[in-house]
Specification:
The protein is mainly α and 265 residues long. The protein contains 11 helices and 4 strands. A two-stranded antiparallel sheet has the order 1-2.
Length: 265
């Protein structure tokens, strides 16, 4: 999928992009300086996560978007930014970087409360917004897609190339097809209506779908869908733990509850 030029979020319009990039680069340089001084790289990384204030950063190579909807923080994208800089400088073993970024496996065992303390309560709330609003929403879409495929019969799928399962998934979850909802999202956020979508816009769209779902749907339906998504996400986490030999997986330990997480600033 190709990247596209999109209108910045309101909070990004408050400061010039050059200043944002300058502030981000200063944080990266401070991170590298501390690691060069002998401090453990992951300890410094979490401190940098707590202090980070830049919602999006554009370098010569790519765009790094850390904040979605002004309240959902993807800390692993920031970890990638810092780890890549550290690995390029020869300060972090590439194997450790790959374990964190590809397998989401922390380099040290850490309870959830300690993780919360290390990145600070504000960043942790924003991190949970991302887990519930993006990862959980993706898990809900996956669980519904698998259910629809089962209903249709696996043997039909190989011969029905015209069928797009995601339209059925979106209609079942959100009450409308994907293209209609994407148009509504872009219109509401002042984005271009084009025939492509970048990964960052897709993440923004997913978070918007989550907020729309918990706002417009019946609470009982929201709770039921959320529980289904949590079960699917837990299954995915267990598969990841098994693949990594029982290592500590980055992010929140999602527990099945009867309430729904609502984004909080």
């Amino acid at each position: 999928m190709s990247d596209e030029t999109t209108s910045p979020e309101p909070d990004e319009q408050q400061r010039p992009s050059a200043l944002l990039n300058h502030d981000a680069q200063e944080r990266v340089e401070d991170f590298l300086l501390a690691v060069r001084g002998g401090r453990p790289w992951f300890e410094v990384l979490l401190e940098t996560v707590e202090a980070w204030e830049v919602p999006v950063e554009v370098t010569e190579e790519r765009e790094y978007r850390y904040l979605y909807g002004g309240e959902a923080f993807d800390w692993l994208v920031l970890a990638q930014r810092l780890c890549d800089a550290g690995a390029d400088a020869g300060l972090i073993p590439r194997a450790s970087v790959d374990a964190l970024l590809l397998e989401e496996q922390l380099p040290e065992r850490m309870e959830e409360e300690e993780f919360k303390e290390r990145i600070g309560p504000a960043k942790y709330r924003a991190h949970l917004n991302f887990i519930y609003g993006v990862r959980l929403e993706e898990a809900l879409q996956l669980s519904v897609e698998l259910r629809i495929q089962k209903e249709r019969g696996g043997g039909l799928l190989a011969h029905d190339r015209r069928w797009d399962p995601m339209n059925d998934v979106f209609s079942r979850i959100y009450g409308s097809d994907r293209d209609t909802l994407l148009h509504e999202f872009r219109e509401a956020s002042g984005r271009l209506q084009v025939n492509r979508i970048s990964l960052t816009e897709l993440t923004d769209f997913t978070y918007w779908l989550f907020k729309r779902r918990v706002t417009v749907q019946d609470p009982a339906r929201v709770a039921s869908d959320t529980r289904l998504a949590m079960l699917t996400l837990q299954d995915l986490q267990e598969l990841k733990r098994a693949r990594t030999g029982g290592g500590v997986v980055a992010g929140a330990n999602i527990k099945i509850v009867d309430t729904v997480a609502v984004p909080t600033r």
